[in-house]
Amino acid sequence: MSTSPSGEQWTLRHGRQEATIVEVGGGLRTYTVDGADVVAGYDEDEFCLAGRGQVLMPWPNRIRDGRYSFGGVDHQLALTEIPLSNSNHGLVRWLPWQLHWHDEDWSALTVRTRLHPSPGWSGTLDLSVNYVMDDLGLSVSVHAANVGDAPAPFGYGAHPYVALNDTHLADVELSIPAAREVRVDERMIPTTTEPVRPETDFRTARPLGSTSLDTAYTDLVRTRPDGAWEVVVGGLAGGDVRVWGGEGLDWVQVYTAKGADSGVNGTRGIAVEPMSCPSNAFNSGDGLVVLEPGQAWSGTWGISPGQLA
């Protein structure tokens, strides 16, 4: 039995790539090419901080005061972001996930868990995440099925950080193909969705400079042949890293504070978070999925490291 804070460790390998998936939260702890970090993860003996690589369901980001109404019933969730009095990043980050399947050479595996009712949450969902490595990088497919007897609200988000290694934060070149951004209040709860401002407009790739982002974007232009959008983190020694999102992932959060040149707890990185909905969707309804009994939702995103080019 593993004594790691993140539980059992399952390693994927394909060519020069290696990744570690963990039991606690079912998330992505490490991803490297030739031993160099692609994602800013955490060590096996460390506790996961700042959502690094975690799976965010049945909602990403925040629910104001942990309160929402659904199906005519008021719900109160536990508050997990105490300074801002919000419930943050769902209910499965610390649940145990089981290894369900892996292929013969361990270049692909699936983990799964069941989310049962708990205070503030009345649904029953079967959840699975499939991680696959190929010559282009890592793809992650997520599946959520309502196995309960009543409708359930649902949203999904992923929380990978692209590792910066020796690149200064100001020198990182970002490309974000989004026409609109979510504006938030002092508690990071959305107020409006508006056209991107000059300081948050990265539709043309440019250095981050002094800009600090903790920003959700939408109206994403899907330029890949498979219909996905992609955010490019460039200016890195190992080449550009592309984080992409497929159908149903119509929002992306970009968070730069953990990429600061000093004072960061853990490996420096910029979070690029594919999401099916923005923060507080259980109240606003923006991007919210309602899963009827027997219905399911799926989404796929991935990371294409420049080192593979």
UniProtKB/TrEMBL annotation:
Highest taxon listed in the record's lineage: Bacteria
GO biological process: carbohydrate metabolic process
One of the Pfam families matching this protein, by short name: Aldose_epim
One example GO MF annotation: carbohydrate binding
Residue ranges the record marks as coiled coil: none
CDD domains found in the cross-reference section: Aldose_epim_Ec_YihR
Designated name of the protein: Aldose 1-epimerase family protein
Species this protein is from: Pedococcus sp. KACC 23699
